[in-house]
Amino acid sequence: MNFLAQTSSTATTSGVTFPTLVLTAMVWSAVIFALVALLMPNQTQDQLRRMKSLGSTGAGAALFFAIWAVETQVSEAAAGTGGIPGGDLLEEHNWLSSFPITSSYHLDVDGMALSVILVVSVVFFCAALAAWRNQRHVKLLTVCLLTLETASLGILASYDWVLFLLFWTLAIAPVYVLARAFGHGHRARVATRYAATSLVSAGLLLLAAVLIAFQSGAHSFDMSTTPVSLPGDGEAVAFWLITAASLLAMAVVPLHGALLDLEEDSTGVLSAIFAAVLPSLGAYTLVHVAVGFFPGTSGSFSLFFAVLAVVTVVWGGLAALRTDDLRRLIGHVGTVFMGLVLLGVAGHTTIAITGIMFLLLARGLVIGVLMLLASLIQERTRRVHISQLGGLAWQAPFLSAFWLLATLAAAGVPLLAVFAGDFFILTGSFPAHRWASTVVLAGTLLASGVLVWTSQRIFLGASRDTFERVRDLGPLELTYLGILVGLIVVIGVVPGHFAEVFQNGAGYILFPGAA
User: Fold this and answer.
1) pLDDT digit string, tens, across residues 119-140
2) How many structural domains compose the chain?
3) Of 105, 282, 285, 461, which one has the greatest count of Cβ atoms within 10 A?
4) Is residue 297 part of a domain?
5) Within 268-349, where are the H helices?
6) Which residues have a Cβ under 8 Å from the Cβ of 321 and sit 6 or more positions away?
């Protein structure tokens, strides 16, 4: 095995041991490039180009190590170890051992984390490419995007509460700054509202971490020992603290307003990141931490998640039908996907949890493409309302083709990425919650129908003189959109490449003692 993928306990023939570096490199590479960017001048056009190159390189480095981590686990899946913590990617070093509650630098991944890691790294890389068109506050944009990427990947790789909370709170600052600096409309109110929501979720997670550390008897912030056993009502309290924090981050109904406003009042690149990445971090926390720590408690409250799934999907579908704002429409579709995640949690089966992993991977790619395309449409037409658009297929055939493919993927068409996630979630949840699965399926079909109808309204019909000078996609747009759409197709055609990793991860979450 290669140097970076060796564990700290693996010795070479010369007797020298090497530490694992893949996850550390993946998490910290982006912020290292951000620190370099802080020291660089950005006055001339050449300096701005070098700044943008630095941002793309930093995001590319994180993507490289993310793919390395994913493929390392995929190669080990056949042996039953891929997708389960404690494998070749484990990193653990003591750093706070002289306190009543100990903490360590502990990085690791399971199947759940790998699904979100892949989509986060791909979306940030494509966003860095899309940001080449930006000429405003280039250094600020580069530094904040790279910092946010490190925070996002750190959340997904942390197996210690101190690290987890450090990265969770680190993500708040760049989101706030980006929304204030590059937003429009009520950007100050939107940024403040989302930051306040994120701080509340961080506070809830902190309370849960302290409760678990003290009442579990381990006096440690380590997150690798599951399931967690607490005396009295401790398990229920800790579970609901983590669940409440996760639902706030997922932006499910009725907690969705802050994220929807953030997506609507941000620029295209930022709205794609906010919509594709931020809710996925909340979904990861719900499944990996809340369900993984307390599988018995989460199973006993499955009816709550089923009801919340129905409310979220039905509301999201109806809201998508009513809205005339293109970005807000996509935000509602993203909310419907989060409702499907809740249904998978309610199902509480290995098949349903596996479906969540597939869905989060596909959701990030599809929502990212749709948000980027919505931004390009609005920039080229100077229109934000769907009712003001029409006939764009004549002027922009490539843009139309990408939108249609992303729409079909969001609708769950077979051989595209979303289908596997929808199928596994509905199959795994139907036996326990037949009525909820039926209503969620109907709500999902409604949202899909709205997307198809929106495609007809935007791109079909007679060509309009108003849009006769609308440009089609250029080489840069074709590159980053091609990467996202290519992955949507590949994952839809060969989902089996990730199946064993995700299944192993799902089994570890629900039945940690048997893994």
Assistant:
1) 999 999 999 999 998 888 999 9
2) 1
3) 285
4) yes
5) 268-284, 292-293, 295-300, 302-322, 326-347
6) 446, 450
